[in-house]
Fold each of these.
Amino acid sequence: MTARQITNPISEETLLELKAGDRVLLSGTIYTARDAAHKRMFEALQNGEQLPFDIAGQTIYYVGPTPAKPNQVIGSAGPTTSGRMDKYTPALLDKGLKGMVGKGYRSPEVIESMKKNKAVYFAAIGGSGALIARSIKSMEVIAYADLGPEAIHKLTVQNFPAVVIIDSEGNDWYQIGKQQFQEEGPV
Amino acid sequence: MQVRTIQYKEIVDQVASMCQEANFELGQDVVAAFQSALKTETSATGKDILEQLILNADIAKSERVPMCQDTGVSVFIVEVGQDCHIQGGSVYDAINEGVKKGYEEGYLRHSIVDHPITREKSKGYNTPSIIHIEMIPGDELVIHMSAKGGGSENMSALKMLKPSDGLEGIKSFILDTVAKAGPNACPPLVVGVGIGGNFERCAYLAKKSLFRHIGHRSELPEIAALENELMEKINQLGIGPQGMGGNTTALDVKIEIEPCHIAALPVAVNLNCHASRHKELRI
Ligand code: SF4
């Protein structure tokens, strides 16, 4: 199975075509945010304030890179555990967020909200931050600069490797993939 | 009796460089384990992931960049010879200063908060470290270092079993911990298990077991057999590389045991992701 090329922001048509288990290469614009930025965006929405950027149709990458060396765009930049963002995610999906890239399980609430809002969850390979950094071509802080490495950055990526884990219908590749290789036997 | 003197500064410098090496260069034992898994993995996605992990380790080594952005908490087991004297400051300070220097100068990530509740970031770059000291005979100082990632640490577990739960109880707790961790701990994993001791001792044993090389078996025949059996059972869970399905869920299982109270059966499972970064240094 070859990987499918995807342009970000992802068109609605493509979003609906993506199926759990598909290998993809992401190119275009994505945004970074992890724990602290999510907490702030969530609180902004609760206070009836605007988000610092228009997330409608966009993709967020859960990453906290290492500091870039003088000649680098970004340091090592693999995904962090997505579950820590679960509490804040449905509110962002309701605002139009369409893609998320991270690693690990999502909560039932997030999956329900993804089905309702027709969004997709991708996983990148955890622990391959040196390799992933090669697909990141530019990086720019766009909000919450005071959070330092946890600020929201706009990234331009090219052929960023990922796998569709949860599709817009709620199919979960972590469950499907595991079942395919589970061997019966007394546990 | 002769007492050997070791200079504070020497520890600082050597620890700084070991922190960088640990993050840039994956141990040969881990790379060899990836390569052998590549031959037995039946999932296409699983194989693809293993190939990318090998490539990632190559890039990290040749470009001297961290293999993973979570450059971890630095955990040390330090064997201090009782006939060695450290001149110029405490061994704790020397190690922390070495970590700070190694992490800051090596462009490694600062991932420590000083306060677990307020989450205020620590002022010492990626310090304080976690340092366990063991006294040994002789005049050597042996420093074992691990850069331990948060993802796999968060999925680790400890349980005070009842003696009547027995071996079956121990096995099902270990399998259950690995199954629950799934993709979150970045499999393929190295599974470290501590059995016996008491509440804090079994956690320490589990951590300590992770410092053994991949492929190294316990010297106790019944424990070595248990390591092999669990390895097989874990790889039948189907979780696979990154939890995307496959038969490479663990690269190894390590077990350490210790005597315990007649009423107790403590078991701790400390998971390590595939970025199993360990270094050793003798001064
Ligand atoms: S669990 Fe390990 S490999 Fe995965 S992100 Fe954390 S440190 Fe890196």
Amino acid sequence: MYVSYQWLTEYFSMDGITPDALGDKMSRTGIEVEDVVTLSEGLKKIVVGHVLSAVPHPDSDHLNICQVNVGEEEPSQIVCGAPNVAAGQHVIVALPGARITGNVKIKKGKMRGEVSNGMICSLQEVGFDDKVIPKAYAEGIYLLPEDAIPGDSVFPYLGMDDAILELSITPNRADALSMRGVAHEVGAIYDKKPQFKAVELNEAPDDSVQNYVKVAVENAEDAPFYTMRVIKNVTIAESPAWLKNKLMHAGIRPINNVVDITNYILLEYGQPLHAFDYDRLATKEIAVRRAQAGEKFLTLDGEERSLSSENIVITNGQEPVALAGVMGGLTTEIVDETVTVALEAALFNPTSVRKTSKAFNLRSESSSRFEKGINQGTVEEASRHAASLIAELAEGTVVSGVEAVGAAKTSPVELDITLERINHILGTAITAEEVVAIFDRLGFTTKEQEGLFQVCIPPRRWDISIEADLVEEVARIYGYDRLPSHLPVTESQPGKLSQQQQIIRNTRGYLEGAGLSQAISYVLTTPKKAQAYMMRASEPTKLLMPMSEDRSTLRMNLLSGLLDDVHYNVARKNTDVALYEIGRVFYQSEDPSQTLLHEEEHVAGVMTGLTVENDWQHAKKATDFFVLKGVVEGLLASYGLKEAVKYVPMTEKEGMHPGRTAAIYLGEKELGFLGQIHPFAQKEYEVGETYVFEMNLQAIIDAAKEAVVYQTIPKYPEMKRDIALLVDEAIQHQELSQFIYEKGGRFLKDVKLFDIYQGEKIEAGKKSMAYTLTFLNNEATLTDEEVTLAFDKVQKALIEVFAVTIR
Amino acid sequence: MDLKSKLAELKQQAMKKIEEVNDLTALNELRVSYLGKKGPLTEVLRGMKDLSAEERPKVGALANEVRDSITALIEAQKERLELEKINQALADEALDVTLPGNPVSIGERHVLTQIIEEIEDLFISMGYQIIEGPEVEQDQYNFEMMNLPKNHPARDMQDTFYITDELLLRTHTSPVQARTMEQHDFSKGPLKMLSPGRVYRRDSDDATHSHQFHQVEGLVIDKHITMADLKGTLEVFAKKLFGEDREIRLRPSYFPFTEPSVEVDVSCFKCNGQGCNVCKGTGWIEILGSGVVHPNVLEMAGIDSTVYGGFAFGLGPDRVAMLKYGVDDIRHFYQNDVRFLNQFKVKG
Ligand SMILES: [Zn+2]
């Protein structure tokens, strides 16, 4: 809502209150003012000119050489390219040295050999937006009133000696979508009472509205109140300057006097009106009803609309003539030939108006007001005022009476509240007198008795319906700055992270320590990526109306998002990437129209490029399977899981390298997987060799944990023995080491692989695995004999079971 | 030459040689040659048997004195030479200490997580619980229980990703509050909660808009909670997040789930309220929305609004990070460029 500061001065004196101060004060007390624009800012030396003559330029087919009276002794010669320039006009002249919009400086000059002392301006050139400029002047210069005095500043003639406050109005304060509403608000802030001039309306005693029209409303919920007046013998013309200026500065394009008046009343009262060309309605019956499905209607923007039963229409008894509250029809709009005007002032169902304007993408000044509510107290007054202005400006005659169906709620609503309640909610010690004074400033009449207020809320503040609304009114006028401040005093309780939250934080800490940075990727992705690298079966969950296919489906894995991140980095030459992500994946468990999705917390990581960079001491080292596996092993060790973790080859995981992928098990439960991505996936994501893991973090959080128990530091030395085994190459480390543990006796504490060899020095199909076995007795010093006994047992068993050769 | 003269000459000669020696091997050779069994001093002592009984002790004493002097000098020289040797060795080991050290590669926590955890820790210290909830929500919890019935005009304020007519991607973390209020047993004490999390709006992504972002919302419900409590809480919060010198101011605003509703500005941390590009010249930065919980919201969660009341507040960590670090494009948070992620190392 654009609010003219000058317009406000019609309601009360604004002496001593600058537009900026007003804007600041409004923002602090109720309605946010986004900007205060001084219309003439940055413009200078722009004056009224009277075109004395205009003759075509001899060397041009479109320029005119004009002699213009700019208030000086001699006329000034100005070359003008506008198609509509003519002698006798009063125009906007930018003198030499002037600044016009966009900080453009006007200089004395020559145009095709002819001297030009400045420029005759269009409205655009003095800062008006294209969309508010009357069509007649859109392609040329603008004409000022004939009584404009040459040489005077043009600003008063264009209503530019003004400042515009741009209000950002929240849905609850639709009462301020009108100048009168804003006046009440400003009055409350500054403790002034706005004065509204009484409307004088002369109705023709010999002609009654009943002679013209009869209204019927099918359903009172659609149009609780519908009124129509008739004004006859009107002359459609351009509006006077004051009216055009007001509309343009409020962001509305002037059309003609009758339409402009309806818009002016909309601005002043917040009451949308619609003017029909009565003769073209071709009926005496107006019926308000729901549209039939598929019914066609030509709106005044020239579009044919196919209607539905959501839409309320005004009909001439046969076919629609207006989409109620949204837009009129082309065939009944006011045109230059209109003689009789049927003026509608009504209330329409907000929900229906909202649906209609949304369905046809027709957001108008009128529909937005109907959606948010209308001051029911001034429907009739707005109509009277409009009729009176049409009589005055279009020289029409208002026939007597109003054709009306239904009623508006015009009486105040009474609301009770106690002083104690107000102070209890605000934490203040405001007195009863202060509260009464605040309600008075707001224009609410109040009766107070022993701390109980009976407050009468006028219909213009329909947003106030409960106690809390009144508390807010008191708080904002009292001033939030005056509110005391302290911390709540409540029964104290400890705040702490849940176990789940703590484990997630620990996971972050571990992975960062391991060199992976935290990524936060998009949850919405393509259907294909959403279903990649899945760890359980589920249908994908798609949005009803995605913004794009790329962001249409909820992820069921974290990896594809992380691979997108790797792609993004690699494309920007960040080739060494180590990232992790903790977040939810979304599975469907049952019918998603009935139940929530199953949201599961996952942790995933990606590593690609170098893990050690080439520097003056070290050769570079590319990341590999075992770098990543070390990270995962360390992470899993950090949870203190009760059950054992094991890694099982996974040869058929889609998107993964068949020989370099392992499933991760906790006991018998599959937690996730790790490995290298398949070369096809590398190609798809345009990345290099990349190692990844993803695990069900929720399962880890929920798994049984081992409490940390202190172990005595051994008093006795440990003993180590090395063993090198020549084994079949198919035998895996996990089998061997587990077997050694089983056979190594109670003193075997650790089995560590320290070498693997496969190559020329040993026979084909075999590999050499070398382990260090560490023995320790916590109770006594181990003897050589004890260790040798255990060690020999292991060797023997290995030979028997795995047919190894001890080397 | 008599023995005395011989001893004197021997001493002078030995002392001179020892003085001049410059390495430990030569020094050891000198020690052996002078003091060893085949050395000249032994030889002198051997000649003593030919001396008179009167002369013998005198020469003996002199011989001892000569031996002691030589020994002492050898020890002193040995100490000196050993020190020199060590010093030389250390000098040879000297490094260019300006060469770079071995890099330690540590990952970084995402800047949004850093901000969220900082807020969580502050409110935990004030006795709040951190409560999370589903990201895919029911219309009922996301909107209706937040006093946003179907067709409420304020639903336009947050365009929504629907999955079905009833299921949607939550547009704020408020539904977590609705769920928690429904469950809370007030006989066990007040409700003080903080709900951080990911939220979604149906928006085209550009420098200032993201269809996915984060929110942190707080809620306190008890019998005697006032707006002054809200103001005090937000003051503590602003100071913690933006610095001790920060002030706040409340401006009336509108949220369907609170009444009264206020927008909270924090005095600009960059210019200290003087006006700059961060605060667009106003000296204040809009950072939070908050208010007194709307009675309808309490009632819909089964809480008696005539007995209980409280406040709620919410803010966007994305916006906070953009303001605090001058990040100019919200998409950076979700594209995960490592050059972006690694900029937030300094933990102060
Ligand atoms: Zn600033």
